[in-house]
């Protein structure tokens, strides 16, 4: 169990979280997955067996929350020391990508499948730091720093 | 039974109102998840927010899901093999921060079991033939598996 590498999976609630779970469910047999997301209300039913940290939500409408959110994410990263971070968005995931990259943790961003026309706003922020940046739309990929390798649906 | 759900981020009174009015006209029962909406359903039962467990119970009990065009509800409906009608929020009406739900509508409608409406008329046309709306099991997960395997390799590098 503990010899598996540790992965931090972090996203906003709602659609981002459901997409994250469709990916992380498959990764749980290969990694020790630790989760983080804002609010405990909209959690999955199988959550009881999982380790989930709550973080402060942040969006374009309430940027001041970046500070508590960043402190909480930093605490999780220092405590858990994950080998990698995986996020499907939105802002809390971008925060984790930035902090993770500063700490030398491997960072992977999967932009939400809801973003068909362009990369999401949080994605554009994460892209500056993410080691691997994935879109779920082939037409948004440039084959260089924005890759298409599949989708949750 | 119908289940109408607008997600957790913003209200979507326009959708809740037209579905509630339709349900009253057609004497259809159901549940509405209305977030911070001001319009309170007269015909449908309603809750503002639900835990995932309660949400899934209502989804299971329904024959048809009606939703804002959000990915979470689409994926959850398809995983439970329920047909879903989605209507996009409109930025111009203050229903979202941008029009990405409209951008996504065309491809969402290509998913088996997902039906799209951008106006009340289109929604009512779909509701009129609600017994024909079909869902097939999610297609073989090749796209998801490919993405998961790539992520796995990317972590291990």
Automatic annotation (TrEMBL), chain A:
GO terms for biological process: dolichol-linked oligosaccharide biosynthetic process. Keywords: Plasmid. Gene3D superfamilies: Glycogen Phosphorylase B. Pfam families: Alg14 (PF08660). This is Oligosaccharide biosynthesis protein Alg14.
UniProtKB/TrEMBL annotation, chain B:
SUPFAM superfamilies: UDP-Glycosyltransferase/glycogen phosphorylase (SSF53756). It holds the Pfam family Glyco_tran_28_C. InterPro entries: Glyco_trans_28_C, UDP-GlcNAc_transferase. It comes from the Bacteria. Residues 1-102 form the Glycosyl transferase family 28 C-terminal domain. One of its GO terms (molecular function) is hexosyltransferase activity. One of its GO terms (biological process) is dolichol-linked oligosaccharide biosynthetic process. Keywords: Plasmid, Transferase. The keyword Transferase applies. Transmembrane segments: none annotated. This is Glycosyl transferase family 28. It comes from Thiothrix fructosivorans.
